[in-house]
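Input (structure):
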């Protein structure tokens, strides 16, 4: 070997770490071969005028960190391969040595000043309250940084209140010192920047409160640092020393200012009552609403305000909705005039009938036999009556005449019963109830309703209004009806009667409201159902949406608490 070179660093930034011979100037070809081996991460062999060049990359923790290059005198291929193996074995020792040095550097003990933030954060997390954490922070900073006094203040409802003071646990907020410290902290928070006094350079910041505090308290150097919870300032930390902090101490103080603020704010919010948390959350929300940005929140608030204004001002029609049905204005029933059995049925429900049409007949065979009996009895009385006339028997004539009249009355009664056994339609209309076609031979009782007939014209609307809405309904109000069979054709009506009788159905209470149709349609049929809406008047939109819920809540509150 005529020359050797160890390079350290990344590609394009390699620096010589060692060379052999030490006094020799490295051959540029040798350095180029090392850079190629590091870049390509492989063993590089190449001839040169001065000898044969070999370069092997060097890795630390599986990452390329340098290269080793050798210049060999001319020798055969076997000799070069043996040199490459020896070089790779030697690099294992070098990589192990570098790894140990890196590990020692990583595990070297930290400077006590750099351990201060970690130690303080651990102790602050273990503190029992926000006040205890603040007292611990100012005391430790005063001791570790050699400060005459360290003060910590927090923002409360727009004003800075001193929470902790080093070397002093009990202090009065009304003293001049507390007012001066609060003014200095407020001066820093108002300008949203740290303030150092005496001023170092020209930064355009105001330090009047700091100047007054330093003059009255005899402090040579002051530093006020805002404490933040994210982007929001929650308080300030003021340090008073006889000499300025060095760069390392300032770095530690700035780090604490960025981390301790969030910890103290979290602890303070956790100790607040629910009213205090609500006030803080509302104040934060309003501050974000009034400040810059937050357009989505502002648009949402404007939308809510517009909705509330519309609910309070805009008026819309108030209508009571109810289930409705069509009934005939009048209806007639066909009843059984006497007991008997159904013999035939010529009509049923849904049929259109004319006045006098035969609807059904009752079995009249017993009546016919009874009529024949009384006819024969009357003929017998007539013969005896003629014999009594021939014999001039006045007493017998009177008796037979009375018996003949009795038989005639019985015959007339049976004729009326026979006529009533034929059930006829009393009016023109539709049969809305009654179907005897499936009851041939069934017995009927006297007065039993067999058919109900509604007229072809003169209908009325019957609405089932819920109990909580019936108080708003009055005679004379108008409305509209839409039937299930005619959904595209509204029918106007006017309320004629509110029946003061309560009925129950489906777990609800209803009142019957009768109304008159403004116009008749040929398509109307008794029994049609639909939805009716009664026009009550104009009401505010908010009342229309929430009056039912408000009434239910008012009734529940009255029944529960009063």
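Output (sequence):
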């Amino acid at each position: 070997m005529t020359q050797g070179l160890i390079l350290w660093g990344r590609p394009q930034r390699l620096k010589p770490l060692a060379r052999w011979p030490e006094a020799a100037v490295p051959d540029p070809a040798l350095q180029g071969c090392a850079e190629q081996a590091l870049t390509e991460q492989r063993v590089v062999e190449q001839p040169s005028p001065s000898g044969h060049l070999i370069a092997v990359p060097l890795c630390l923790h599986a990452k390329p960190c340098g290269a080793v290059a050798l210049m060999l005198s001319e020798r055969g291929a076997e000799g070069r391969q043996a040199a490459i193996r020896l070089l790779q074995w030697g690099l294992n020792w070098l990589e192990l040595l570098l790894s140990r040095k890196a590990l020692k550097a990583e595990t070297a003990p930290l400077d006590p000043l750099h351990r201060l933030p970690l130690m303080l954060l651990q102790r602050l997390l273990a503190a029992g309250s926000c006040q205890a954490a603040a007292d611990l922070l100012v005391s430790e900073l005063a001791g570790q940084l050699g400060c005459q006094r360290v003060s910590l203040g927090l923002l409360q409802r727009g004003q800075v209140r001193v929470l902790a003071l080093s070397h002093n646990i009990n202090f009065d907020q009304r003293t001049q010192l507390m007012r001066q410290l609060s003014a200095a902290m407020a001066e820093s928070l108002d300008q949203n920047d740290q303030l150092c006094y005496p001023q170092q350079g020209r930064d355009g910041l105001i330090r009047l409160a700091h100047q007054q505090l330093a003059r009255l308290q005899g402090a040579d150097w002051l530093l006020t640092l805002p404490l933040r919870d994210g982007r929001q300032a929650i308080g300030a930390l003021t340090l008073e020393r006889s000499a300025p902090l060095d760069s390392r101490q300032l770095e530690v103080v700035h780090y604490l200012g960025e981390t301790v603020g969030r910890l103290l704010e979290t602890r303070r919010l956790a100790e607040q009552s629910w009213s205090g948390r609500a006030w803080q959350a509302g104040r934060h929300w309003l501050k974000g609403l009034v400040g810059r940005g937050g357009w989505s929140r502002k648009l949402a608030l404007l939308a809510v305000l517009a909705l509330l204004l519309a609910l309070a001002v805009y008026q819309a029609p108030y209508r009571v909705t109810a289930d409705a049905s069509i009934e005939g204005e009048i209806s007639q029933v066909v009843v059984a005039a006497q007991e008997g059995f159904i013999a035939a049925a010529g009509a049923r429900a849904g049929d259109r009938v004319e006045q006098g049409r035969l609807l059904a007949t009752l079995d009249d065979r017993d009546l016919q036999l009874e009529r024949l009996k009384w006819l024969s009895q009357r003929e017998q009385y007539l013969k005896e009556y003629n014999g009594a006339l021939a014999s001039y028997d006045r007493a017998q004539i009177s008796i037979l005449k009375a018996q003949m009249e009795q038989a005639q009355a019985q015959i007339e009664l049976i004729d009326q019963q026979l006529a009533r056994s034929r059930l006829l339609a009393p009016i023109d209309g539709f049969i809305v109830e009654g179907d005897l076609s499936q009851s041939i031979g069934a017995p009927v009782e006297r007065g039993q309703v067999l058919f109900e007939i509604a007229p072809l014209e003169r209908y009325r609307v019957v609405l089932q209004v819920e109990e909580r809405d019936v108080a708003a309904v009055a005679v004379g109000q108008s409305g509209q009806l839409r039937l299930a069979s005619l959904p595209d054709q509204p029918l106007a009506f006017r309320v004629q009667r509110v029946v003061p009788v309560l009925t129950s159905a489906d777990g609800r209470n209803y009142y019957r409201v009768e109304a008159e149709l403004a116009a008749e349609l040929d398509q109307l049929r008794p029994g049609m159902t639909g939805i009716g809406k009664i026009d009550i008047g104009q009401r505010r939109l908010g009342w229309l949406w929430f009056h039912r819920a408000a009434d239910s809540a008012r009734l529940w509150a009255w029944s529960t608490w009063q």
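Notes: Residues 105-110 have pLDDT under 50 and may be disordered. Residues 74 and 295 are 78 Å apart (CA to CA).
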